[in-house]
């Protein structure tokens, strides 16, 4: 990942009792020095984000898991707007996670709009894309990823591409225990970078971090991170375990 910081994201999803969150904060705070080229971002639930922000070590960035599709606070029951999130000092968001695409009807256009809102407000974005198993079996991986990526790329304001991280998360690998092999992940990351290069130019395409997500664990992170186009991870299940430290350490 030549010169780029390795991004290690932890997506806690809808998990975490207060006790569990306290122990995860302690786990991170007691983990010792992170590798110099690791950039760590964790996304607790909206309920826990304030506590995490107050108590976690300052070299752990805190993220929300979603944003509302309008930029300003107001009559949006149950939602979080970018201005409120920023007021809290939170500068990261995960957008377009496959669970939100699948269960909350987030279309590629909806995700693109949210990316625009977040970037215009100065936030950094982990934008998630990825194909279903049936897409992969039909040789449609890149077609599906491009259709998800296009509205995201169109949404990037001038000069903001440095705040975009693309998370390639094949849906068949999320929460299933089936990880893409390092070669499978590398092949898709390489194709994604080539596509980025066509759309945004080679310099920006090289600088954008493309991170892999889908059953990343302590046991497979070392082999994945060795690959030329894998610039970090988005971790679900294993971010709720002690082994998240090991995944952070793999960026050394
Ligand atoms: C995720 O939710 O982004 C994810 C990759 O989950 P898991 O690591 O549990 O597969």
Number of strands: 8
- Look up the CATH topology: TIM Barrel
Radius of gyration: 17 Å
> What's the SSE pattern?
EHEHEHEHHEHHEHHEHEH
Broad CATH class: Alpha Beta
Bound small molecules, by name, code or SMILES, are: phosphoenolpyruvate
Q: Give the biggest sheet.
A: 8 strands, parallel, barrel
Number of helical regions: 11
Mean pLDDT: 97
CATH homologous superfamily caption:
Aldolase class I
Measured distance between first and last alpha carbons? 11 Å
Q: What structural class do the secondary elements suggest?
A: alpha/beta
Overall structural domain count: 1
CATH architectural arrangement:
Alpha-Beta Barrel
Helix fraction bin: 25-40%
Low-confidence stretches: none
Q: Shape from CA axes? A: globular
Q: Give the percentage of residues in beta strands.
A: 15-25%
Strand arrangement across the biggest beta sheet: 1-2-3-4-5-6-7-8
Care to give the gist of this entry?
The protein is an alpha/beta fold. The protein has a single domain, classed as TIM Barrel (Alpha-Beta Barrel). It is built from 11 helices and 8 strands.
């Amino acid at each position: 990942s030549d010169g780029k910081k390795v991004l290690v994201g932890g997506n806690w999803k809808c998990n975490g009792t207060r006790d569990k969150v306290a122990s995860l904060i302690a786990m991170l705070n007691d983990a010792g020095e992170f590798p110099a080229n690791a950039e760590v971002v964790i996304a607790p639930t909206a309920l826990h984000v304030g506590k995490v922000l107050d108590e976690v070590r300052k070299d752990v960035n805190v993220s929300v898991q979603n944003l509302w599709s309008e930029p300003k606070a107001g009559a949006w029951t149950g939602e979080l707007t970018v201005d409120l999130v920023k007021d809290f000092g939170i500068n990261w968001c995960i957008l377009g996670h496959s669970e939100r695409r699948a269960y909350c009807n987030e279309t590629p256009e909806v995700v693109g709009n949210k990316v625009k809102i977040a970037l215009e407000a100065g936030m950094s974005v982990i934008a998630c894309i990825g194909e279903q198993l049936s897409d992969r079996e039909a040789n449609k991986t890149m077609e599906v990823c491009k259709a998800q990526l296009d509205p995201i790329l169109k949404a990037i304001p001038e000069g903001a591409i440095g705040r975009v991280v693309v998370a390639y998360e094949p849906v068949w690998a999320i929460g299933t225990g089936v990880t893409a092999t390092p070669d499978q992940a590398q092949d898709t990351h390489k194709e994604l970078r080539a596509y980025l290069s066509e759309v945004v130019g080679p310099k920006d395409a090289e600088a954008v971090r493309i991170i892999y997500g889908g059953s990343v664990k302590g046991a497979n992170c070392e082999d994945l991170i060795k690959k030329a186009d894998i610039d970090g991870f988005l971790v679900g299940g294993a971010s709720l375990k002690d082994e998240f430290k090991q995944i952070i350490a793999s960026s050394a």
